[in-house]
């Protein structure tokens, strides 16, 4: 019943005269990093670099999963049906409250929007983090070293999710951390500028010394005085 109601809301959102998709706000306003939101938006738009999309672009002949070789590798398959994704979801259930398995179903192109419409903000954020990590697991097997594990990914998400939760509850903590990073970067820039100041000044002075007047060369020395003298001489000839 809940799923049917969510599907109706998604269909109503799709039919807006201005073409807007109100339910996409659940993605862009989610309490997750921007890179996770971008990933979720691409997942919702079926824009990830999956085998199915490569097949549609005629880059490959078949769109089947390179790991199991049985099913088409769509975005839904990678983050929900893949054995790694399923194992990650079951591992996360030990600490996180997630929707029942029946709610993780392929209801068409809007399946992600339907799923997010069924849950609250906290659960929705966890789902996006889980899908983002499931995509990483798949890519690590195919394109990476294959060293990422389900248990390690679950522990990473526990810690990552807790850090995000603390940052949301205590914005000052997050601001302090950002300020420390900013101060550190400024100190490093100042240090590099001081170390290279002598060399940079020499380069600037030498460049100012190279003034052309009938292809002549102004020798090093007091460059600014030579340059000023050259400009005055040029004005007299105008």
Automatic annotation (TrEMBL):
Highest taxon listed in the record's lineage: Eukaryota
- InterPro entries, sorted: RVT-Znf
Every copy of the Reverse transcriptase zinc-binding domain together lies at: 22-86
A Pfam family assignment: zf-RVT
Query: What protein am I looking at?
Result: Reverse transcriptase zinc-binding domain-containing protein
- Originating gene: gb15674
């Amino acid at each position: 019943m809940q799923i049917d109601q969510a599907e109706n809301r998604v269909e109503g959102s799709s039919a807006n005269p201005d073409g807007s998709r109100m339910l996409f706000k659940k993605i862009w306003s989610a309490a997750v990093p921007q890179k996770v939101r971008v990933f979720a938006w691409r997942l919702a738009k079926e824009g990830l670099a999956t085998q199915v999309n490569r097949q549609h672009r005629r880059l490959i002949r078949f769109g089947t999963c390179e790991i199991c070789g049985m099913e088409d590798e769509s975005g839904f398959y990678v983050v929900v049906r893949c054995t790694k994704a399923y194992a990650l979801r079951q591992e996360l259930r030990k600490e996180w409250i997630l929707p029942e398995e029946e709610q993780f179903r392929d209801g068409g192109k809007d399946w992600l929007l339907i799923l997010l419409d069924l849950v609250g903000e906290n659960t929705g954020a966890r789902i996006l983090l889980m899908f983002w990590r499931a995509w990483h697991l798949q890519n690590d097997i195919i394109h990476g070293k294959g060293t990422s594990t389900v248990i390690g990914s679950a522990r990473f998400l526990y810690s990552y999710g807790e850090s995000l939760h603390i940052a949301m509850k205590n914005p000052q903590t997050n601001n302090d951390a950002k300020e420390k990073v900013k101060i550190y970067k400024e100190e490093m820039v100042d240090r590099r500028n001081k170390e290279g100041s002598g060399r940079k000044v020499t380069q600037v002075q030498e460049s100012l010394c190279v003034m052309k007047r009938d292809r002549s060369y102004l020798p090093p020395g007091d460059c600014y005085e030579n340059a000023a003298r050259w400009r005055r001489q040029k004005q007299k000839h105008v």
